[in-house]
Amino acid sequence: xxxxxxxxxxxxxxxxxxxxxxxxxxxxxxxxxxxxxxxxxxxxxxxxxxxxxxxxxxxxxxxxxxxxxxxxxxxxxxxxxxxxxxxxxxxxxxxxxxxxxxxxxxxxxxxxxxxxxxxxxxxxxxxxxxxxxxxxxxxxxxxxxxxxxxx
Length: 151
Hints:
With 151 residues, this protein is mainly alpha-helical.
């Protein structure tokens, strides 16, 4: 049985947003990721097949829309319904920060994911016109779950 079989709004909403990985996909979309590969970088342990399925489910639910970016390339954009999830996902993060973050273990630390988040938060308008190189020294950090990347 896929759904909860209840007319309760919490149950109906959970059928859309509480599937495994879906809140993290929503987090990535809310943080500005639009292309499939960028979304996957934000959830590197999620299989590409499952990400495709979740994106399709969110599209079917009216939370996101898929738009052609160029021939053969798609972008995913939040609809008004998807954007209304912003405070819910932010509050979920705030709750996790306050109540569950103490349970972080070594294998939860992924330097590639950290660098992905740092990269997308850079204010490019504040950078000079010439090339800028920033080096992060992450000695002693556990090896990443995902493939090693150079940012």
